[in-house]
TrEMBL record:
Protein name as annotated: Xylose isomerase
Active-site residues annotated for this sequence: H108, D111
Keywords: Carbohydrate metabolism, Cytoplasm, Isomerase, Magnesium, Metal-binding, Xylose metabolism
Lineage summary: Bacteria, Pseudomonadati, Bacteroidota, Sphingobacteriia, Sphingobacteriales
Assigned protein family: Belongs to the xylose isomerase family.
Length: 443
């Protein structure tokens, strides 16, 4: 349990620490399923998820959209001095996270404090807020899951950062990443993320794709080498997304990023941070992306959220589909968990969710749903025939000629002769509906 901490002001007055009260509770400000200390399969719920709060959505995201300005008028966003304002915001963040029992947080450099166009001034500002965050972390027990640099909002990055055709812009990105890595290390961050929002193109007519991707790889190597030299032992994550804000992002999906990491010799240091809404934008289910990463030993961390079935953009809503989450947890449990990663709520409350309590409801609902999904997935794996049924589909490869094929001992003529000898195969059901019903029985 985290120590609740507030600054000079209490920003979420009237709301104490959210406690587990069990499924029968009708208290909207209590957990009904998420019980941090509860053991599930040899690990506490807290350790399974390592839930993290996304600083940018919860404390900077003010409800504005392309059609209208801010609707969330934050009391921590009032002071005119940027450092004083940033400290108020950090007070609010740690108050909220400690009241929510969130063990981790994640940030972009510019989420912590406003940046200017002067690199040395930005470095100074970030160091000031990092020192403040260190105090807050040790008072609350909250830790940094990952840090990152925002290389997509400033207008200089309109043509990309590490993939910008202008070396001067690339160098700026380097300066920003260096400071963000320094901040992550100073705060004991367990991972460092690269999401390449504008690392892609708007038109191939003006783009040398090969050169841009080589620059990106070189840039990642420099960042990794610098961090290792500074003693960083954590994992680097790439967060795939197919598009938005660019028309085409190079880190399209898990398979694309894995091929890139392999091509440029980055798989020892880098893994994947997968986001639900990015998977759906790429035309995949989230489970698909998780499985691809897990199969390569590169499942790192997740950004939990959801899209909207009727909208084709990254709406970043809080998760609320139990069935999908159970399938998600099945993949994660079978992969052996998230390691140094965690579950970061890269999600925002809606523009018209304007009560201070709304941020609590959003996190409570999602943490509860993850907990329910974990319990269901754990029981499916422990007590049902799910894994056996799947394995049985491949039984023909377990012995005889099938096993010889897997072991690389057959050639194409052997396949032909086997087929002639055995004749037409029996039809075998994939039993999809049966398995869907099996999962539903555990919800
Ligand atoms: C945007 C991304 C971003 C990353 C961090 O779509 O999800 O929020 O997680 O830069
Ligand atoms: Ni994300
Ligand atoms: Ni996103």
């Amino acid at each position: 349990m985290k120590n609740v901490i507030t600054g000079d002001l209490e920003f979420f007055k009237g709301i104490g620490q959210i406690q587990f009260e069990g499924p029968e509770s009708d208290n909207p400000l209590a957990f009904r399923w998420y019980n941090a200390a509860q053991m599930v399969g040899g690990k506490t719920m807290e350790a399974h998820f390592r839930f993290a709060c996304a600083y940018w959505h919860s404390f900077n995201g003010n409800g504005s959209d392309p059609f209208g300005s801010a609707t969330h008028l934050f009391p921590w966003d009032e002071k005119s001095d940027p450092i004083a304002r940033a400290k108020d915001k950090m007070d609010a963040a740690f108050e909220f996270m400690s009241k929510m029992q969130l063990p981790f947080y994640c940030f972009h450099d510019v989420d912590l404090v406003d940046y200017t166009d002067v690199i040395s001034e930005n470095e100074k500002r970030l160091e000031t807020l990092v020192a403040y965050a260190r105090e807050k972390q040790s008072a609350s027990g909250i830790r940094l899951l990952w840090g990152t640099a925002n290389l997509f909002s400033h207008r200089r990055y309109m043509n990309g950062a590490a993939t910008n055709p202008d070396f001067q812009v690339l160098a700026h990105a380097g300066a920003q990443v260096k400071a963000a890595i320094d901040a992550t290390i100073a705060l004991g961050g367990e991972n460092y993320v690269f999401w390449g929002g504008r690392e892609g193109y708007m038109s191939l007519l003006n783009t040398n794709m090969k050169r841009e991707q080589e620059h990106l790889a070189r840039f990642l190597h420099l960042a990794k080498d610098y961090a290792r030299k500074q003693g960083f032992t954590g994992t680097f994550f790439i967060e795939p997304k197919p598009c938005e804000p660019t028309k085409h992002q190079y880190d399209y999906d898990a398979a694309t990023v894995i091929a890139f990491l392999q091509q440029y010799g980055l798989t020892t240091d880098f893994k994947l941070n997968l986001e639900v809404n990015h998977a759906t934008l790429a035309g995949h289910t989230f489970q698909h992306e998780l499985q691809v990463a897990a199969d390569h030993g590169l499942l790192g961390s997740i950004d939990a959220n959801r899209g909207d079935a009727q909208n084709g953009w990254d709406t970043d809503q809080f998760p609320n589909n139990l069935n999908e989450l159970v399938e998600t947890m099945l993949v994660i449990l079978e992969a052996g968990g998230l390691g140094s990663g965690g579950v970061n709520f890269d999600a925002k409350i809606r523009r018209n969710s304007t009560d201070p309590a709304d941020l609590f409801y959003a996190h409570i609902g999602s943490m509860d749903l993850f907990a329910r999904a974990l319990l269901a997935a754990h029981r499916i794996l422990e007590t049902s025939e799910f894994q056996k049924i799947r394995a049985a589909r491949y039984a023909s490869f377990d012995a005889g000629e099938g096993a010889a094929f897997e072991a690389g001992k057959l050639n194409l003529e052997d396949l032909r002769n086997y087929a002639v000898r055995m004749g037409e195969p029996e039809t075998r059901s994939g039993r999809q509906e049966f398995l869907e019903n099996l999962v539903n029985r555990y919800l």
